[in-house]
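My convention is simple: the sequence line spells out the residues, with the fold written below as integer tokens. I include a record here:
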Amino acid sequence: MYRSMETSELLKDIKEILIPEEQLQARVRELGEAISRDYRGLNPILVSVLKGAVYFIADLTRAISIPITLDFMAISSYSGGGTASSGVVRLLKDLDEQITERHVLLVEDIIDTGLTASYLLRLLRARNPESLRICTLLDKTSRRIVEDLPIVYRGFEIPDVFVVGYGLDYRQLYRNLPFIGILREEILEGGGVV
């Protein structure tokens, strides 16, 4: 059971703000403009992964000026509330829309090893989309295991640190922080807030 925390209490757990809110919002607008330009006339479907990418996709879609369709998937690749992916991905919620012969843009909050994105790409490719590309807010290339990911739109490349905020969580907390922050080591070592 988690204890109730105010945002000011969550801020105390942040070691450093890696990407401030203003910089995040400016980059999301740039990504939206690029997607609008590249997909003009194609009516793409943006597929987002719950829950981490919700804040990003909400802002991104408002920055896109062309008609789009939006759908969601839910997966699990972390076990036990830890900070490292288990490498085993489970599909918890599938798409509601058909993507056959559609232009699909997979919208991710963060890509590190690439294992989860690779799983999702295999799943989506099996449905015969016209095209399939990735837009990720954060890219942790130093941890990459899967190299051949079609990341066409990248918000920020970040170092190998554990980040929270703007949808990213640790034990379901910190998602509502308006920036990307680095969590203090003692929070991670101590198992987080309970």
Remarks:
- The chain has one domain: 21-161.
